[in-house]
């Protein structure tokens, strides 16, 4: 949804009564939507991505979906279990010779930040039955090769390494260099959640959660059941959407986020985390052991930062010892 349209709709929505039929055919048609439900869903998705959960919690200023030249991709993968021969169920040390079929990709999903489209791919039934993931490995390779920044949950230890393994197996070269933002690492380093699982954190923060599944889904998808493969793709797509929700919640707290100033062609400072030009140099300072810098807070995403230049005179710098 266009930012101008969102702001216009938001003003009316925020004052509408609960019993008022707000999403009408006329409103949808006026803004180019086929149905009121399609418009409502688009509005709700954008509203939640901005952290606006309800009419009861309306911010003084609506944060913008800032467009930057950086291509930021949220992604998630689903992989198969191994098929092994084993002598029992408990405390097994499985020899590599007991592996009948190694793991492979089952599906993947991805979403360019703020895009309304979730892109995904899943094994066809005949591919799953012979455990051939070459087609979907190539499709995710092409997407990652375009990205400047990738966002994942446990991607640094799992998703990225797993994909590299299948890229190598399927004869693909490394994808072009990208910078990784792992929300699991952010959760562990910056916060103290009781659990760092994606579903738990989202539930704790009151944002959308994972689709409930069980091991039966993975087993049936492994053997090529078409219905299970479709369910797996839907499950995977939802994971990608809720990952974006979590990323946007955590973004102001992410330290050492890839500096979006580097993707800006304008000679003006922007928020390193979201790319907004609305920086509030509020008169506060950022102190290091031997330096003082002017500090700011982003009026859009609330991230904090500092200038690169020391805010000390040459004479004062000479007096600082350590």
Task: Please describe what this structure looks like.
This protein has 322 residues and is of the alpha+beta class. It folds into 3 domains: 3-49, no CATH class; 72-87 and 96-253, Ribonuclease H-like superfamily/Ribonuclease H (Nucleotidyltransferase, domain 5); 278-319, no CATH class. The protein contains 11 helices and 11 strands. The protein has helices at residues 3-15, 25-30, 36-49, 125-129, 134-144, 155-169, 183-190, 198-205, 215-222, 226-250, 314-319, and strands spanning 72-79, 83-84, 99-101, 105-112, 119-122, 149-152, 179-182, 279-280, 285-287, 292-298, 304-306. The protein has a 5-stranded mixed β-sheet with strand order 5-4-1-6-7, sandwiched between helices. Strands 8, 9, 10 and 11 form a 4-stranded antiparallel β-sheet that branches. Helix 8 (198-205) crosses helix 10 and helix 9 crosses helix 10. It is globular, with a radius of gyration of 23 Å.
